[in-house]
Structure prediction request, 389 residues.
Amino acid sequence: MPTEAVGAGALLAILRDGRARTRTELMQVTGLARSTVSQRLDALLEGRWITPAGEAISSGGRPAVAFTFNGAARLVLAADIGATHTRIALTDLNAHVLAEQSTNMRIEEGPEHVLTWLVKAFGSLLAECDRTASELCGVGIGLPGPVEHSTGRPVNPPIMPGWDGFDVTGWLGSRLGVPVLVDNDVNIMALGEHWTTSHGVEHLLFVKVGTGIGCGIVTERRLHRGAQGAAGDIGHIRVAAAADQLCRCGNTGCLEAIAGGAALATRLAAGGENATDARDVVQLVRAGRPLAVQLVRQAGRDIGEVLASLVNFFNPDTIVVGGDLADVGEHLLAGIREVVYSRSLPLATQHLTMRGRTLGDQAGVVGAAVMVIEDVLDPVTLDRSVAAD
Prediction:
């Protein structure tokens, strides 16, 4: 790395690996002069981005002070807003959840209703931890529909009446006083899982199977959103088994129309079961209801048909299956594996790992926090912040 590119932000990026380093070690890594390293460390110390690490390190002479990243320097508020359920959290800069809260709330109640609740709930989280809004560095939001990430505005979301084009970042930012980042819920779940359990994985697909179906794509350890943020919308890929089944997006034959949680609940209700959403489907499978088990296994096969094509095209290291329906256990995964391994090229599946989610319901809020953290701690962004202080 050219020494002129090693600003305070780049120095912090080095220290974020969790290892404490002395001035001498940082000089060796960066090639910077001691005076320059000291100047940039002083700026980071002043902003509380770093902190002295425990006892000084001695090599026989005067003990050298080591420095480490200060994950407690700022706070992040995060929200995973689903079609029928919302979870919020307060985290530190390591995306560790300090407090969280969840509620049943329908996204179709509209943006102002949902976001007004969000502002109040965020305030209660801060109060619970005896923290203040002055400690915040940003807010991350996940929404259950297509989002243009650069503007934070939902774009023609099929299950979010009243949300199309709504200025979520502006509305929340003016009330919370900090930057707001918005993405679709599947992308933030992919970020959460990758950050927490698969940080070394280069290429990962996170498949959310809940009310609808979507896919978050991590390539070379970075989230891939596509040109307008629409990458990964696999729920509306046409599959043969869906035939002329009408999807709520207005088209027919979509994967979501036969394998999404809402579609499965509708079919179970038609079969005499008490089911209105994906969580009811999970309960029926856990209760061993034959029709529920049969439909979920077939949903896995239908999803596997689409994923087999993605495996051949993208060649991921890992596929993680999340969303409410992931809680049915092996029934869904078994159907997916059955088709993926039979329909994908052997080279593409040779080292492929397929598993259920690790973070459970926390994946979304952790990922929303990670989205903010990576933005705030980007070396260029942090250099600007340090210069402004």
